[in-house]
Amino acid sequence: MNKFKIFSAVCLIAFSYCSAQKNAIVAHRGAWKKNNLPENSIASLRHAIDLKLPGSEFDVWRTADDSLVINHDAHYNKLLIEETNYADLIKFKLSNGEKLPTLYEYISEGMRNNKHTLLVCEIKPSEISKERGQKTGVAAVETIKRLKADKNTCYISFDYDILKKIRAIDSKTSLQYLEGNKSPKEVKADKINGVDYHYSVFQKHPEWIQEAKDNKIILNAWTVNDAKDMDWIIAHKFNYITTNEPELLKERKEIKK
Q1: Is 196 helix (H, G, I), strand (E, B) or coil?
Q2: Which residues are CB-neighbours of 160 under 8 A, at least 6 positions away?
Q3: How confident is the model at residue 169 (pLDDT cuts 50, 70, 90)?
Q4: What pTM was estimated for this model as a whole?
Q5: Which of 15, 106, 194, 246 is least surrounded by Cβ atoms within 10 Å, i.e. has the fewest?
Q6: Mind listing the pLDDT tens digit for each residue in 14-51?
Q7: 235 φ/ψ angles, rounded to the nearest 5 degrees
Q8: Which residues pair with 238 in a beta bridge?
Q9: In the chain, what's the furthest Cα-to-Cα distance?
Q10: 225/32 Cα distance (integer angstroms)
């Protein structure tokens, strides 16, 4: 058995629940919208887990003093996260009174009373340099392994080199690419497990849907918030659907049964 076949077998065993899923809901930045919770907050993560959603996505940056924090945008309260120390960031609370969570705190909460929800960790490309983004990815993997959460976590990024760097240090973890500019066969050649593209990419390249299935590449689509778009994805039986509207998606799935 060659190295690629060994890699494929390991990933299929470790992440069979990923590829076995059909139209499984991933809460984008946690389940926040319906209850007006802050995005990427501990509260939005906990709500996604309490809803027993199959996945909850979140975004990781690294501060100037190397703290890994959870926030979607490069800036937090008009401060560039990568050029600001953590102590200065947490002077500003989230809208529900939480402080800006660290990755350690976020993953610790994600492992508590959670038997259903995959932690979908997006490593944000660095605003400073490609190398810095890759180092952030490595640091995130190390933190998640330290918390023994690696089997409950997959990694996604718009930066292909971040994913390749993670693969170089971890042959087993599940990786999904976000940018939408590579075919499923291309990502498979680089040992990336999934394509997690904006739904419009798959509408422009419907042939990629079957290509992904034929090559056992995980299919995920973001950010699917409109009922019509949800119905289109559901009909094509993706593995995951990432949405800001998990409650609506649950309803659409019930209707389409």
Answers
A1: strand
A2: 177, 179, 182, 190
A3: very high
A4: 0.93
A5: 15
A6: 344 566 689 999 999 999 999 999 999 999 999 999 99
A7: -60, -30
A8: none
A9: 55
A10: 13
Average pLDDT of span 220-239: 98
Kindly state the tokens that stand for 105: 């705190």
Q: What tokens were used for 99? A: 């402080």
User: How many residues are there in the chain?
Assistant: 257
- Interstrand relation of 75-76 and 79-80 (parallel, antiparallel or unpaired): antiparallel
Q: Any residues with CB less than 8 A from the CB of 84 and at least 6 apart, and which?
A: 63, 64, 76
Residue (of 219, 226, 231, 255) closest to 243 by Cα position: 226
Q: Are 177 and 156 in contact (CB under 8 A)?
A: yes
> Rounded to an integer, what distance in angstroms lies between the CA atom of residue 58 and that of residue 214?
29
Residue pLDDT, tens place only, 74-97: 999 999 999 999 999 999 999 999
Q: Is 191 left (phi over 0), alpha (psi -120 to 50) or beta?
A: left
Buried b (16+ CB within 10 A) or exposed e, 49-82: bebebbbbbbbbbbbbeebbbbbbebebeebebb
User: Which amino acid belongs to residue 171?
Assistant: S
